[in-house]
Amino acid sequence: MKQYYTCLKKLILIPLLVLMAMSLNAQERTISGVVSDAQTGETLPGANIVVKGTQRGTITGTQGEFELKIPEGADSLVITFIGYQKSTIRIADKSVFNIKLQRKVTGLDEVVVIGYGTVKKSDLTGSVSTVKSEELTKIPSSNALEALQGKISGAQISSGSGEPGSNPIVRVRGIGTLNNANPIYVVDGVIVDDISFLSSNDIQSVELLKDASATAIYGSRGSNGVFIITTKSGGENIEPQITFKTEYGVQQLENKIDLLNGREFAMALNDISPGTINNLDAVANYDWQDAIFRENPVIQSYDLSVAGGNDKLNYYLGTGFFDREGIIPKSNFKRYNLKLNTKYKAKDYLTFGANISGAYSNDDNAPNVVGTAYRAWPIDTPYDENGNFAEVRGNGNPLAAIEYTHNYSKTYRLVGNLFTEIKFLDDFRFKSSYQLDMSHGKNRNFTPEFYVSATQQNPRNALSIDFTEDRTWIWENTINYDKEFDNHTINAVAGFTAQERYFESPTVTVYRLVREDPLFWYFNATLTDTVDVSNNLGDAYQTSMISYLFRTNYSYKKRYMATVSFRADGSSKFREDKRYGYFPSFALGWNLSNEPFFPELKNINKIKLRGSWGIVGNEKISWFDRYSLFGSQYGAVFGDPEKLQPGAAFFSAGNNDLIWESTKQANFGIELGAFRDKLTAEIDYYRKLTDDILVLLDVPGFYGYGSFQQVRFNAASVLNSGVEMHVSYKDEISDDLRYSLNLTGSTVHNEVMELGATTPTDSVIYGGALSNGKRVTATRVGESIGYFIGYEVDGIFQNEQQLEQYPHLTDQDVGDLRYVDQNGDGKITPDDRVKIGSPIPDFTFGMGFNVSYKGLSLSVDLQGQVGNELYNAKNQTRFSVYNFEGRVRDRWTGEGTSTTEPELDGRAGNYEESEYFIEDGSYLRLRTAVLSYDLPDRWMKGAGLTSASLYLRGTNILTLTKYSGYSPDLGGSPLSAGIDSGIYPITSIYTLGLNVKL
Amino acid sequence: MTMKRIKIIIPFVLLILMSTSCEDFLNNPPQGYLTSGSFPETRKDAILATNGVYNTMLIWNFHAGGFPILDIMSDEAKKGSNPGDATQINAFEFFTFSSTNSSFNRWWSTLYQGIRRAHVVLENVPGIDMENELKTRLIAETRFLRGFFYFKLVRAFGDVPKVLSTNPPTKLPRSPKSEIYDEIIIPDMEFVIENLPLKSSYPNNEQGRVSKGTAKGLLAKVYLFREDYQNTEKYALEVINSGEFSLDPDFNHVFAEDNPFGTGSLLEVGAVPENNYFEGGNQYANTMGVRGEPNLGWGFGRPSWKLIQDFGDDPRKDATIIFLGETLQGITIQGDDSTPDTTYSDEDPNQIEQIECYNQKTFAAGTEPRYTWGVNRKLLRYSDVLLMAAEALNENNKPQQALQYLNMVRERARAGNPDVLPDITTTDKAELRDIIIEERHRELALEAQRYWDLVRTGKAAEVLGPLGFEEGKHELMPIPQNAIDMSEGMITQNPGYL
């Protein structure tokens, strides 16, 4: 692998160096040309043209024409004109220039990408947030979404695991469902479930569609929000722009968990059973966290792209390499990616093109030793006197676990589309697009034969390979109608789409390979005929969907806007007569500030009001939820000698009456601009009611479905409502000194309105199952989804008298936690468990500050959330004696010694689900700080570059939180969010970056 | 191409697109799975479906929810494992469990799961075109299992919902226990007795399937629980006189791995050493396997100090209990680090409460957990039938005959040592009754028999009272709380439970 990697670096660097070395050697000469508006073609008199890096320049004449003598070695021209974007053009050996300037877009004149089209921001009636490319590359990550944390109102993005290659957890506008709550992503029109195949550097912009007016065009997939990702493209008549970007950095653990040291732990053992350790001074003191975490693992990336175009063809080509070592050895992620966007105008009325992304990723997976290290006894050391792995009490030897795990995944992913666009009847456009999302993966897991201890051993080596094939195609056909006449503007789209997904993933395991060397990690090398083909994974499925869609935007005099959209989706996941779902939406907008009667206010220059209502759906259920299936692996053992005879029995129980889950959403928004749009604000209020939520529920045991079999029902209603705001202030104190401030914030109120009314089920859904089988979340009418339940704690039993006086569990004694008998029946029973917290924050927010002076700029982003709790499950799930958290230092050791921290007595009564394990999940994080420096133009000239900048960046620099674990932003599925069972820590990252444009 | 042409073409293209048949496109039948309606439909399917019913007994939860709670509730075992593990099981040691304890729901649901699997066979196999002999046998095997599952249900829960098809009504009340006996269990067993072959007529590779003798033995037990001693006597003697079964001379050999479906086995769950149930593993045995070193299991259902005392000099003690330091088939038992070797009573520090020891009836030689998954579970043994015969004969005033069968069991247990377990000679009915129950205690220790024996003979309050047993309550298990909740009150709770 190493060779490939060095090879790739060479491949990128060599052409770059060649390009850099090329210096122009021309004599002084005269060039000429015309400057015009890129959109209208109108010539621009009075535009300023300067040879870059010199004082030499001129101004265009009345027809936009110019003539200019350029010195030897002149590299490029800089063209500026009021109201237009500054443009830099390479001179090369050209002498006639046809220069087109793009109009500067500010605030409400921006174009926003919405589903199946674009709309001017001023005409937008829905709630859409936009984030531009420069924000997306601020976080060194394999997934651009990480960079959106705190940047986008209405979206709660949690890093979750810090494992390299893992994806963040995204929730848009609360949690609207009890099943899959992930949003969808539309990459250049292709609907996908994640964007891990994209390099952040290839992304132009991300728009988040939030309200029903915006998402209803995606119908059955819109209810969890829609991210529209637009990748970079070339442009008409643009000189090739070559960009190279590289980053190199190191990572560090942000904080360690406070655990007992050897001596303290020995004392704790003596508390549990007196006399266990006689000489406290003789015990070892080993820090298992230091043992499993690497120092300064590297993170690096290289991206090279070229964009350009002529009259007919425009193109963008990008390639990149991302490499991250995990903080735990053997967890690494590497991705090589390619991006090609191209568009060819064959005739005036005919265009075709392709947007293609390819990625190959290599993911090495370490075992989850975070929990193992947490549990390991600090008085045990990893190696014996012979240097072999020693038994480590607790949960095994973490270093041995790392050593004996070999788990590698390789994934090839291709996402893209081929499209053609035909203009007809002046205002119509027909577009046909064929889209593909293909992924082929292979996971290879080898476990050698080893023996560390009775509980940590593997007597026969084993090799498992898991093959995954996942492909989706979508064929979209749309007709757009765009017309402006008099005071009316109409944009309409109608279309038909079909899609099919095929998935297959068999797993095969063989035992006893002849050698343990990687060269033998193939099925061939097995010595036995024992081959296991894993039962549940060897299946395949195919799902399909057909959709009809329609939308029209209408605007009158730029004052009154209306949008109507409709989508019908038919899905194979539902029975024939329940197959179609219908998703309409309506919206109105009013640009109050465009009214003639709107006064010329000094401060406020813009007010826009908008409101929408619509229905969207969620169809993220399994293909088999409607079927009752038989599995053919339910055999029985007969005969002497005994042999397994095959058998078949019900494998799952389906519900053929399922219908679409649907969300009715109303939204009201206000957009303000003040001080000539220096200050802009956007505030939205939404109310989302999701009905017929598709949820897996228990069924009565006598149905005979089995004890863990759940059946999917349309069984709940959930309300989410909240306010979101985005405020930004930008100002230029002088040409050289600029600054800006951004603020986003969102509130969520989440409430279950109905549960199981039409189903044979209980009025509560328990979730958050821990490894000890305890379920620590409940979902009930009137409460938020997945709140934590457990016993309320009101102190410690200080003496026998109290123990007699208060109800307690049978195995509780003096010194243990005193649980509250909520129902007053004189006993502590599961009925006494109450709500002890909620993983849903009341408020999530982000803040950004940028200041730049000449070539130097500083940008700082903060992000956080308040009002949620976390469940410290790793502290609760104890199957035997493990190391303890630092809090036990203040434990009860006799009457009056503590009222919060129980005695260590080896009894189980303190490890029931209770407030004791609840912690405050609020945090404020210094997410990024970037100091960047644009190298002076005069240096550029000699190097033949247009621009270059260097930057120094810190990510996750500091987190202010009361939480005792590694990271407070845990995420999780709706019914098990905010539970820390030993999460892979996220890291602080310090990087040095270089950005070069040719 | 001119504009005009395009104008003409477009509507046609659209028309073609819109008119493709969508409904076919949206039909995606499951791939790689049988679905109800397409299974079972052939001779081979009939065998598969029947084996699928047997497979229920390999499901962990089939055995009282997976943990050996019946042994733990009796005086034979304690929770086991280490003190901090699976503390919800403590509730069975102290009789503090309630209807929300998940063991009940898992147990109840899995028994009904087996019943549903049986109904797949009973609903579909009669219509399959195949040889009658095999068809009848499969149906009879299935009816045995259905009846057996119902027997386990009524014994544990009393009155239960009566489900007779794969698609029961969405809500069902409990039916009286007597109705389940009279309409399902007894007719099922009678049908089986009439239609199943003898154990000896199964070929070697089909040993382990239920036979005529299995049904007679179980019917004897059913009648014993109904205190119908005439019928218990009848069916137990039919088993004894059939000549199909005998006592293995070596008590140790009964539980040996190389002795599956042996000479004294009437009903036994076959297992192979694979650590999941669909490959034929028996997790219930692993649950009781030695914890620590060798790592053979979780170590639940620790033999109680009382059981050790009750054995006295009975040689079956060593065959039933694994003590620390013992070497079995070359493997020295060292046990678990986080379990105290000896636990003393809180009240009296000199009084041993329990010692670390394990159930030897589920032992398998080996050093990794997989091996105990290969241990068969014996559900009905010939010695049990002999003791049932003895008990019924005593109740029917035939003590001499009773003594004959009781002493057969004691003689085998004696293993040739004339100094222990002398023949019983008393013919005093009450005395003999007690002796037989205590003989069952030692012969069938840790086989989940003791609790029900104490309950059905009315001795539970006396023996288990000090452990927390309440008369009038704990004779039955609580109906799982969620079964009650989901029925919206149609299903009621057993007396004494909330």
Short overview:
Chain A is mainly beta.
CATH structural architecture of the domain at 2-101 in chain A: Sandwich
Computed over alpha carbons, the radius of gyration of chain A is 31 Å
Biggest sheet of chain B, open or closed, and with what strands and sense? 2 strands, antiparallel
Shape of chain B: globular
CATH architecture of the domain at 38-196 and 468-498 in chain B: Alpha Horseshoe
Roughly how many Å apart are the termini of chain A? 31 Å
Low-confidence stretches of chain B: none
Question: What strand line-up does the widest sheet of chain B have?
Answer: 2-4
Ends apart, CA distance between termini of chain B: 83 Å
What CATH first level of the domain at 2-101 in chain A would be assigned?
A: Mainly Beta
Could you tell me the radius of gyration of chain B in angstroms?
Answer: 26 Å
- Greatest chain-chain interface? A-B, 93 and 110 residues
What oligomeric state do these chains adopt?
heterodimer
Number of strands of chain A: 57
Low-pLDDT sequence parts of chain A: 1-26
Could you report the average pLDDT of chain B, rounded to the nearest whole number?
A: 92
Would you mind describing this structure in some detail?
The complex is a heterodimer of chains A (998) and B (498). Chain A contains ten helices and 57 strands. Chain A is globular and about 100 Å long. Among the domains of chain A are: 2-101, Immunoglobulin-like; 622-657, no CATH class. Chain A has a 22-stranded antiparallel barrel. A five-stranded mixed β-sheet of chain A has the order 10-15-16-13-14. In chain A, strands 3-2-5-6 form a four-stranded antiparallel β-sheet, with no helix packed on it. Chain B is mostly helical. Among the domains of chain B are: 38-196 and 468-498, Alpha Horseshoe (Serine Threonine Protein Phosphatase 5, Tetratricopeptide repeat), CATH 1.25.40.890; 280-364, no CATH class. Helices cover 45% and strands 7% of the residues of chain B. Chain B has 20 helices and eleven strands. In chain B, the strands form five sheets. A two-stranded antiparallel ribbon of chain B has the order 2-4. In chain B, α6 (102-124) packs antiparallel against α7. The N and C termini of chain B lie far apart (83 Å). Classes of the chains: A mainly beta (998), B mainly alpha (498). At the A-B interface, β27, β30, β34, β35 and β36 of A face α1, α2, β1, α3 and α6 of B. β34 of chain A pairs antiparallel with β1 (34-35) of chain B, so a sheet runs across the interface.
